[in-house]
Amino acid sequence: MAVTETLYLVDGKPLTNGRNFGRAAGTAGQANGLNNMLPPISMIERIEIVRGPASSLYGGNALGGVINIITKKATKEWTGSFNVEYLTPDSSNKIGDNKLATNVFAQGPLIDNLLALQLNASHTKKDGGGVRPNPTATNPNATSVVNGTEAKGVGGKLILTPNDENDISAEYKYSEKKTILAEGVAETISNTTPYTKDIYTLTHDGRYGNLTMSTYYQAEETKKEGTTSNLDVIETNNVLNHQSTYALGEHILTFGGQYKTEEFKDPSQPLTKKVDRWLGAIFAEGEWSVLDDLLVTTGLRYNDDELFGGHLSPRLYGVYHLTDNWTLKGGVTTGYSQPTVSAATDGWFNNYGQGAWLGNSNLNPEESVNYEVGLHYEDKNLGLTSSAVLFQTDYKNKIVPNRICTGAANCTYNGANRNFINKYENVADAQMKGIELATSYDILENLQSGISYTYTTSEVKDGVFNKGTPQEIDLSGKTLNKTPKHMFNLTLDYQPTSKWNLWGQFNYRGKSTDYLSFDHSTDVQSETPAYHTSDLGVVYKATKDLSFKAGVYNVANKQITNADYGITLDGRRYNIAMNLKF
User: Fold this and answer.
1) Which residues contact 138 (CB under 8 A, 6 or more apart)?
2) Does residue 137 contact residue 76 with C-beta atoms inside 8 Å?
3) Which of 101, 189, 248, 546 ranks highest by number of CB atoms within 10 Å?
């Protein structure tokens, strides 16, 4: 699954609001955008991962699973931490740029056993000046200088604990991301105005015997200022969410609902200047202890929204402990994901680098049926865990980009030349399937290893782009976007003493397709070639409160540029960091 199909949460609240802005805002849900929204590392207590589709509880953005970042709870005394990290490219790496990141976190009581305060701040600056190929229709050897970026954020949270059963919190977060122009780049409103985000959250958590409850209201505004206030681009999202969990003997019931409103205003759009909608959902899930060794989970979610109406998403999953070491897992889960309101609007475009993505009012929500069966082995005495998982996902109306033109000489939209133009389309019927193998093993008490391999195939069963036009093309038999057939990862972690930790990792990613398009009559897809990277690092714990780390990423200096393949893989980079707790 793509990163856009994995739901990222912080304390159970999604980070994927603001998706209509696109990647430029750093809020779209892609990896780069998420980096600007994650809490400082010093705030994080642990990370919980839910593998596989989780749409019945979390909705359509969780088709690929859930990553929930749990932040630290309020403490009875003042504590904090400071972290600084510096990343610099190797002299032979002409793509990368220097990056400096700092963050600080502090928390403690204002009134003992009643009111606590948490504060955090972060700042990241990446220099510009790197040179990347940027071919045009008239000059295939053209290059461009890469601009830098600066991101900063602050946040505060008040936690009221009137008794052991209730926590009430009020939180505010502000973040800002702006471009730092490289030398020689002309200054314009579009490349100098920062994107800002304000998030206000009220939360109540209750614990009443066998019943736990969590309710939050979140208001979010993402904005890019125009030359005047009436030209501001603004997205607002308001979410009211409730979830309760009840322990019924050996069974666990979870139920709740969500209501959300979205509004996106962009005066620069050629047709519609404002789009909005409401979305609602109710859900229920049960974990049933059928036998001592058999746990069955059933789930059902009903989604409704202003544009696409209602839809039911059921789930059935089982876990059977064959022996103390062997476990069989498997089930069927359905997925349902509505397009963003901008993607479902004709003529609406989002800038993406030097290209544009166009909306399409004929888009339908994406549906999927996901099958999984896996065999898992664990022996704590040996320090060994292994698993083999077979999976298959059948898509209906899979949402993909159709590249309708490439090259600035041929691509013009809203009065500007574009390097490419993509349009959101549905693929009527597609399938993805494969196998995932994973093993972790304690070679020695102080030496751990991990290895994983994933084989994936995908195929469009039924799909036509540009139907009824001279560019009509049948995509049947083609692969889905960005789906490598082979992925392999190897990690080693060695702790020679209590103060030193050494680690290394090797990653291989097979070739994958980049987009579906009618640009190429013989092969409608371009390919990203196979590549591999290796990373090495060391961590030194000087005291219980002070630690240092250093690393070398992409040791072999493997570089792929967008001139060849439409992506950029950065070269060798060096990293140093310090963390201080107080």
Assistant:
1) 409
2) no
3) 101
Q: Residue 519 has which token pair?
A: 């640009």
- The helix/strand/coil state of 557 is coil
Contact, 263 vs 238, CB < 8 A?
Answer: no
Task: Determine contact, residues 335/367, Cβ cutoff 8 Å.
Answer: yes
74 token code pair: 């309020």
CA separation for the pair 144, 457 (Å, rounded) = 36
Distant-in-sequence, close-in-space partners of 296: CB < 8 Å, separation ≥ 6: 287, 288, 290, 316, 317, 318, 319
β-sheet bridge partners, residue 541: 547
Nearest to 361 by CA among 343, 381, 388, 384: 343
In the block, residue with structure tokens 């049960």: 286
Q: How far apart are CA 194 and CA 180, in angstroms?
A: 10
Name the nearest CA neighbour of 280 among 309, 315, 246, 305. 305
493 CB-near residues (< 8 Å, 6+ apart) = 447, 448, 449, 501, 502, 503
Q: Of how many residues is the chain composed?
A: 582
| Beta-bridge mates of residue 133 | 143
- For 344, the 3-state DSSP assignment is coil
Contact between 567 and 530 under an 8 Å Cβ cutoff? The reply is no
Residue-by-residue DSSP string for 215-254: EEEEEEEEEE--SSGGG-EEEEEEEEEEEEEEEETTEEEE
Per-residue confidence in pLDDT tens, the chain, 582 aa:
555 677 888 888 887 545 666 544 433 333 444 555 677 777 888 888 877 666 677 776 776 778 888 888 888 899 999 999 999 988 776 666 789 999 999 999 999 999 999 999 999 998 876 666 555 555 556 666 677 889 999 999 999 999 999 999 999 999 998 888 776 666 665 566 788 999 999 999 999 999 999 999 999 999 988 766 677 889 999 999 999 999 999 999 999 999 999 999 988 888 888 999 999 999 999 999 999 999 999 999 999 999 999 999 999 999 999 999 999 999 999 989 899 888 889 888 877 666 788 889 999 999 999 999 999 999 999 999 999 999 999 999 998 888 877 766 667 777 777 777 888 889 999 999 999 999 999 999 999 999 999 999 999 999 888 777 777 788 888 887 677 899 999 999 999 999 999 999 999 999 887 656 545 433 445 667 888 999 999 999 999 999 999 999 999 888 776 554 455 677 889 999 999 999
Under a CB-based contact definition with an 8 Å cutoff, are residues 476 and 463 in contact? yes
